[in-house]
Amino acid sequence: MQRENLDRQFSGKVRERIEAREIRHLSVFALAPQPLLIELGRLLGDIVAADVRQLQREPQGWAWPADGPAIRYQVRKAGSGPGPVALVLALSATVTDERIFAALGPEAAIWAIEAERPHNDIMKRSVDLAEFRRQLRSMFKLVMAAAKTWRRLKGENQLPKVVQGVTFRNSVEVTNTPAQNVA
Q: So what's the pLDDT on residue 180?
C-alpha cells in the first residue's frame, strides 16, 4: 500500500514536473523505510540530478562529514549454479550464506557487496556513497551479463513462490501429487 501511494504521489507531483523541466535537481532526505527508499531510487533513476542525505547521529545533522575512514567493500560473484539468484548488500550487518540458502535453497547463486566492517550508520561520507553506487552498478552489469545464460521460470510473477520455498525443476514448479506423498 505504501509503495502504491509512493508511485501515485511521485507520478502526480514529481515525474510531471521533471518532464516539464520544472525540477532539475532534488535533495532526498532518507526518512522512510529502506524498501520505500529503494523504490524511490528506482523511480528517480538517472532522470534528474539528486543529492541523497542521511541523518548522521554523530555529529548530529544532515551534512556529510568530509573526513573519516573509507568503507572497504568485498565483492563476491556467484558461480553459474542453477538456483535462484540473491544479491546481498551487507552494509549495516553481516548476511550469512546460510540465511540465503534457508530462504532460497542450497543451489542459490549468491552475489554480494559486503562492507569489510558492517555496522549501523556506516555511510558517513558522500564519497563512500559514490563508491557504493559505482560498486552496485558494476555488480548489476555483471549479474545482467551472467543472466543471459540463466534459465527462466515459466509463468508470471514466480519470485514470491521462490521466496516461499517452492521448488522449481527445469523452470517448472514441482508439485506434490497424492501418489508422491505415499511412502
A: 47
Q: Are 110 and 76 in contact (CB under 8 A)?
A: yes
Q: Are 153 and 162 in contact (CB under 8 A)?
A: yes
Q: Which residues contact 65 (CB under 8 A, 6 or more apart)?
A: 56, 59, 124, 125
Residue 145 lies in a domain: yes
Residues 90 and 142 in one domain: yes
The domain in which residue 88 lies consists of 64-150
Q: What pLDDT, in 10s, does the model give residues 152-166?
A: 655 666 666 766 667
Pair 106, 83: CB distance under 8 Å? yes
Domain total in the chain = 3
Amino acid at 138: S
Buried b (16+ CB within 10 A) or exposed e, 49-86: eeebbbeeeeeeeeebeeeeeebebeeeebeeeebbbb
